[in-house]
Each structure stands twice: as structure tokens, then as C-alpha cells.
Design brief:
Length: about 400
């Protein structure tokens, strides 16, 4: 196919004149291809899918019914701009009841069309060419991608097992620190499953103040906290002076596809976010905001979600341990992040998590997500489809049988 006349016009941020010509296959595409191949090569074998990072059930009936009713109301038909006051009030009430965090709903809360969009827009509020965003790795890359779009740089803070999967803020070189404007953290962390402590957050706040850096804490998985009670960054004194927290109804309330979340915290930062957002979208459909209010009003929804994924993670930890993996119950998220096996008795050996993950899909139709960013780890998600506990147990038994059939070496 010959190039269109505008091929040379593509912006450098997406590859310039080379846009669309790359041959590199990205991790998730490789996984998709391997899954298709495993299904074609072994039609007799079900794929055991620990690769998906999306809740496996719909939003609860009451939330869907609220949505159905709100769709029919003519007053919900228009642009929602920066959100209806009732949603902001419901968020403020939730943050107060759940975390004891006091927020002014009019100035310290703004909705977003899923937290992904908020993480994409926040760099626009701070990053000019040459500025630096500090970001933990492995992690959710969206704020980093947009930092680069604005001509900024990303400085990676590796999450290492030896540091208990917390970033080493003292290791950042002075020349990076002097250009850093933004620190993006994410707890409960995806993919490591680590939860933050109040002490860690206090350290982050001190670091931010000393170095004049803004903090964005991504709390997408906060209601899936198993170690202690869910902890908001904003519970820690001083947090509101340095940053915002980004929340989502996707995971805790089974509302992945609904696209609704919020940014809350420092008033000036919330306002800057709202200004950028106002220039990007016209707000989430009001019926969805109203259904989200119903969801936020029902503490049982996140509690049941937490219970289910917690139970599934405990079962998975038991199975993987019996198969030689060195793993423990994560503090939060629906992911189990565990060191990769080194190989299989009699060969092959794995030089990366990706090699191990490909082997598990190809040989045993077990899908995982490999992470090679800071050590070699496999991520098992417990969002597989299983309609009841008996189905979960059967899937665990099948996983154990398949993993024991290959003798993994660690
Ligand atoms: C760590 C993290 N942050 C944010 C998001 C985005 O979630 P949403 O846009 O559905 O709110 C995800 C989604 O997988 C995530 O894993």
C-alpha cells in the first residue's frame, strides 16, 4: 500500500512519518495471539485465563435499574460539562463515610469519564517541554504517555521486591528532581498488589513539599484492599496541600464499561483538571452519573466485590504455592504478582517473564501477563469467569493439575 500524502505529517509523538510502519508486537497483542494459537492447537483443552484485568460480572441489578430509569428522563439528555452537583455530593459523602476525608463537593471533587481519562489529562495541567514526571514501574502507563506528548520526560521509579514494592524516593538524581513537577503513585498497586501505609504517604507528602512536586495518587483499586482497611492518600495530614487522588467505580463496583470516576483533593489542582477536562469532553452522560450515585450509596457493593476477589486470591495463592511458586496474599487489587519460574525440569529455561508466560499458554493453555520491568514476574488476575464457588474450585483444581504436570523450577 502506498503512503497517503499526509504520511509525513504525523506528529513525532506517535512516530512521525514512520507511524503505522512499526513491526514490533506489543505484550498484550503477543498474549492475544498466543491465546488464539492455544485454542486452535488444543481444542480439547479449556483456556484458563488469568490474563484479563476486568471484573467478570455486570454492575449490580439496582444500579442497572437506576440507569434504566434515568435514561428515560428528558432532563438527563444534555451535556453534563464538569458534572452534576449531586454526583460531587455523593462522592464527598462517600469519601467522608469510607475514609473520614472531608471534601468540599463544589471545589474539591470533579468527575471523570473513567480514571484513565483523568490520568491522561492531569499531565496537561503541569507538564511543559523538559519537565519530568516521576512514575513507578511496572505500572499503568497513561500519565507517562501524556507527559511525553507534552514534551516532558518520564523518570521511572522501579518497584522492587527488596524495597517491598515501594519507590525509593531518595534515589532520584538531583538534576531529575530539579525538573520534576509530578509524582504519580498507585496504591493498591497494579500489578504488584502492594498497599501503601500512612507512613509511606507521610514520606511522599514530605518529599513533595521539600521538592515542590505535585502528587497524583491513583486509587483505582482502593476498594479491593485485603490488608487492613482501604486507605486514602487524603487521610494523611498534608495530602491535600500536595495533590489529588483519582478514584474509579470500575473495579470496586463492577462498573468497568460505564466509564465513571472522580478526581479529588487540592482545590487548585481539581480546578486545573476541570479546566483541561472541559476542553476535552462534555462530561459523562447524566444517567450514568445518577446510577453511580446509587452505587456509591450502597456500601455492600464494594464489600461483596472485595470478598469475592479476596477469596479467589487466597485459593490461587494456595494452589500456586503447592506448585512451587513463592507467593503471598496481595495487600490489594485483583492481581497476584509472583516471581517467574526459571524453567522446567528437562528444559526449557526462561530468560524472562515473557518466555515463561508464552510457555504456560502454549504448553498448558494457562494465560498470565508477564512483567519484565523490574525483575521477572508473572501477574495472575482472579477475574476469570466462574459462576459460583464450585466453579472456582474446579478451575483451581484444573490449574493445579496442569501446573504439576510440568515440573517448574524456581
Ligand atoms: C492502576 C490503574 N489505574 C487506572 C485504571 C483505569 O481505570 P478506569 O479508567 O476504568 O477507571 C486502571 C485500569 O485497569 C488501572 O489498572
Amino acid at each position: 500500500m502506498s503512503d497517503p500524502y499526509f504520511q509525513k505529517l504525523f506528529a513525532q509523538r506517535i512516530g512521525g512519518a514512520n507511524y503505522g510502519k512499526g513491526t514490533e508486537i506489543y505484550k498484550f497483542e503477543k498474549i492475544k495471539r498466543a491465546k488464539r494459537k492455544a485454542l486452535a492447537d488444543h481444542p480439547e483443552r479449556d483456556l484458563i485465563d488469568f490474563g484479563i484485568g476486568e471484573n467478570d460480572v455486570m454492575a449490580p441489578r439496582a444500579v442497572r435499574e437506576e440507569m434504566a430509569a434515568e435514561i428515560g428522563r428528558p432532563e438527563n439528555r444534555g451535556y453534563a460539562d464538569n458534572g452534576i452537583p449531586e454526583f460531587k455530593e455523593a462522592v464527598a459523602q462517600f469519601m467522608d463515610q469510607q475514609f473520614g476525608v472531608n471534601l468540599d463537593p463544589t471545589t474539591e471533587v470533579n468527575h471523570c469519564i473513567g480514571s484513565k481519562t483523568a490520568l491522561a489529562m492531569l499531565p496537561a495541567t503541569l507538564i511543559d517541554p523538559g519537565d519530568v514526571t516521576l512514575m513507578t514501574t511496572p505500572g499503568y502507563p497513561v500519565a507517562g504517555t501524556h507527559t511525553r506528548y507534552y514534551g516532558g520526560e518520564v523518570h521511572a521509579l522501579p518497584l522492587l521486591a527488596e524495597n517491598d514494592f515501594l519507590p525509593d524516593l531518595d534515589s532520584i538524581p538531583a538534576d531529575i528532581l530539579s525538573r520534576a513537577k509530578l509524582l504519580v503513585i498507585n496504591y493498591p498497586n497494579s500489578p504488584t498488589g502492594k498497599v501503601a501505609t500512612a507512613e509511606f504517604y507521610a514520606k511522599v507528602i514530605d518529599f513533595a513539599k521539600r521538592n515542590e512536586i505535585v502528587v497524583v495518587q491513583d486509587a483505582a483499586h482502593i476498594m479491593l484492599t485485603f490488608e487492613g482497611k482501604p486507605l486514602s492518600f487524603l487521610q494523611v495530614p498534608g495530602a491535600k496541600d500536595v495533590g489529588v487522588e483519582v478514584h474509579s467505580l470500575s473495579k470496586g463496583w463492577n462498573m468497568i464499561g460505564w466509564r465513571i470516576g472522580w478526581v479529588c483533593g487540592n482545590e487548585r489542582l481539581v480546578s486545573a483538571f476541570a479546566d483541561v477536562k472541559d476542553n476535552c469532553d462534555s462530561g459523562q452522560f447524566i444517567a450514568i452519573q445518577r446510577a453511580a450515585i446509587a452505587a456509591l450509596d450502597d456500601p455492600e457493593i464494594p464489600e461483596l466485590t472485595r470478598e469475592k476477589y479476596g477469596r479467589r486470591l487466597e485459593k490461587l495463592v494456595d494452589v500456586l504455592r503447592r506448585c512451587g511458586f513463592e507467593c503471598a496474599m496481595p495487600g490489594g487489587s485483583y492481581f497476584l504478582y509472583t516471581p517467574t519460574p526459571k524453567g522446567v525440569a528437562g528444559g526449557p529455561t526462561f530468560d524472562s517473564a515473557e518466555a515463561a508466560s508464552q510457555f504456560l499458554i502454549t504448553e498448558q493453555s494457562i494465560c498470565t501477563v508477564p512483567w519484565d520491568d523490574a525483575g521477572a514476574f508473572l501477574r495472575f488476575s482472579v477475574t476469570y469467569e466462574a459462576h459460583d464457588e464450585a466453579a472456582e474450585d474446579a478451575l483451581m483444581a484444573e490449574t493445579e493439575e496442569r501446573l504439576k504436570a510440568i515440573e517448574l523450577l524456581f
